[in-house]
Design a protein that fits this description.
- The relative contact order is 0.07.
- The termini are far apart.
- It is built from 13 helices and 2 strands; from the N terminus they run H-H-E-E-H-H-H-H-H-H-H-H-H-H-H.
- By secondary structure, the chain is mainly alpha-helical.
- The protein folds into 3 domains: 66 residues, Multidrug-efflux Transporter Regulator, Chain: A, Domain 2; 61 residues, Multidrug-efflux Transporter Regulator, Chain: A, Domain 2; 106 residues, Antibiotic binding domain of TipA-like multidrug resistance regulators (Globin-like), CATH 1.10.490.50.
- Helix 3 crosses helix 5 and helix 9 runs antiparallel to helix 10.
- The longest helix has 33 residues.
- 70% of the residues lie in helices and 2% in strands.
- This is MerR family transcriptional regulator.
- It comes from Virgibacillus indicus.
- GO terms for molecular function: DNA binding; DNA-binding transcription factor activity.
- InterPro entries: DNA-bd_dom_put_sf, MerR-type_HTH_dom, MerR_fam, TipA-like_antibiotic-bd, TipAS_dom.
Length: 245
């Protein structure tokens, strides 16, 4: 499909699609000799994901990082988004009922208590939005990096030494069961070390461990301390998170 056809199909502007192409967020499968952008079925699926994440409130730069990651799972993303929409629909249905009852109350058709007037209003966070942000958000990483950047040269050196020491200790026990006392003791040290600089929930900690295996860049760096360490840490982190919830 040409860019104008895609824009008309989706309901967005041609300029928006051009912008996505310019920033490397959505580059069409091919461009004709005359310069026309041609979008494939896969491109349309990627565009759908982009718009889903925009609905979640993610900035374009972050969306690009998410969908280009080797660990990105399109089905998982759709399932989380579906849960968010169901939660939103439920809240809207409750508010519509409150509006209908309020109209009847104003017409004198029914009596309405003060409590009933505010049914449907919910200012708490959507639990599925939190799930999405824990899966793809980078708040904990940003906080951690910000804290590290505040350290003096000597403090950074001490932090790096502690970081390397923990990895070396874990590498020495990587052939043990991730459920063993030694493994869980070592991974507990890692969890508390991460939380010195960031704010990792147990779910985020578990997700981070999965990323160690899903993202080959993590795997390569971690396995420098010992082959198989990334897989061992993922399993131990998952067990630690599940046991301590």
């Amino acid at each position: 499909m040409k860019v104008k056809e895609v824009a008309d199909l989706v309901g967005i502007s041609v300029r928006t699609l051009h912008h996505y192409d310019e920033i490397g967020l959505l580059t069409p499968a091919e461009t004709t000799e005359s310069g026309y952008r041609i979008y494939s079925e896969n491109d349309l699926e990627t565009l759908q994901q982009i718009l889903f994440f925009k609905e979640l409130g993610f900035p374009l730069k972050k969306i690009k990082d998410i969908i280009s990651s080797p660990s990105f799972d399109r089905t998982e993303a759709l399932e989380i988004h579906r849960k968010m929409l169901l939660e939103k629909r439920s809240r809207l249905d409750n508010m519509i009922q409150t509006i209908d009852k309020t109209i009847q109350h104003m017409k004198g058709e029914i009596e309405m208590s003060n409590k009933e007037k505010f049914e449907g209003f919910d200012f708490s966070s959507n639990p599925y939005e939190q799930e999405a942000r824990e899966r793809w958000g980078d708040k904990a990483v940003d906080e951690s990096n910000a804290q590290i950047n505040k350290l003096s040269k000597e403090e950074k050196k001490a932090w790096e030494d502690e970081f390397n020491a923990i990895y070396k200790e874990l590498a020495m026990i990587r052939y043990e069961s991730p459920e063993s006392d030694a493994a869980q003791k070592g991974i507990k040290v890692w969890y508390h070390f991460l939380n010195k600089m960031g704010n990792y929930s147990l779910d985020a900690f578990k997700g981070l461990g999965q990323m160690y295996v899903d993202d080959e860049r993590f795997t390569k760096n971690i396995d420098q301390f010992g082959e198989g360490l990334a897989v061992f840490m993922r399993d131990a982190m998952a067990i630690y998170a599940d046991r301590n919830k």
